[in-house]
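Person: At home tonight, work slowly through the protein below, taking as long as you need, and write a paragraph about the fold.
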Amino acid sequence: MALTAAPAAAETTVSANASCEVRFVRAPDDVRHVIERWLAAEPRCTGSMDLRVVPTDDGYYLLARRPDGRIHERVVPDAQSAGVLVASWVADDWIDPPPPPRPIALAPLYTTPRESPPEAG
């Protein structure tokens, strides 16, 4: 895990591997450290995001934005919950959807030969 040192008011970037990066735009130091530990332990980390963690009366408000514009947001009660949730957001959970079901093979329709209408005569 690489940690970019920055002044207290600036952003900090945590990279668990080359394809996983969380940029802390705003976060209390103690919560940031907990989230960093969860990110370091996440083996499926393949995403990147900008993360803001804002203390609230009920815990912490998390707001994350991915490079493709997707937004994740949630209020969690404590720093451990924040760490688990952020790690799940950057985990490789975007697997390909299952293929569509194969069509059911239907038996061919058998028809009995039609009788020719009687000739008028």
